[in-house]
Amino acid sequence: MSETITYRTGDATAPHGAGPRVIAHVCNDAGRWGRGIVVDISRRWAEPEEAFRQWYQGRAENDFGLGALQLVQVEPELWVANMVGQHGVRSRRAPGAPAPVRYEAIGQALRRLGEEALRLGASVHMPRIGCGLAEGRWEVVEPLVREQLTDRGVPVTVYDLAGE
């Protein structure tokens, strides 16, 4: 059964609804954490940042890299999905260099997220992933969200902050 994407104004770190929920966001492959939605995530829970930093530090022995997914439980029915879909960070990019977004990696991470969301019976909540610091375009990311999540029956809510 195919679901639709629900768009609403609000904060993705305070997802609406009941039952199991996953907050999804895109991380970079440079091990940096400290700008964008992760600031709000870290204000609410310490575990996602701690897990991301450990995941990055152990990258020689684990699956950390573009397209990877790390699911971190922060409350009894709430998880944060760290999805590696950005190569490097914008501030380190030379003028004229490609944007940090990696659409294929976002698609791979979303595929993995879809599997986990179905296993958990969870809905997914996110900002317009890959379109902030990663400099992606929602018209490219949205079809990936549809293909990997809503077309597989995973309910998705996309949050836009007021005034954006």
TrEMBL record:
Q: What's any GO biological process attached to this entry?
A: peptidyl-glutamate ADP-deribosylation
Domain named Macro is located at 1-164
Name the catalysed reactions: an N-(ADP-alpha-D-ribosyl)-thymidine in DNA + H2O = a thymidine in DNA + ADP-D-ribose
From the UniProt record, list the coiled-coil ranges. none
Domain of life per record: Bacteria
Which InterPro entries does the UniProt record give? Answer: ADP-ribose_metab_enzymes, Macro_dom, Macro_dom-like
Task: Name it.
Answer: Macro domain-containing protein
User: What organism is the protein native to?
Assistant: Kitasatospora acidiphila
Lineage per the UniProt record: Bacteria, Bacillati, Actinomycetota, Actinomycetes, Kitasatosporales
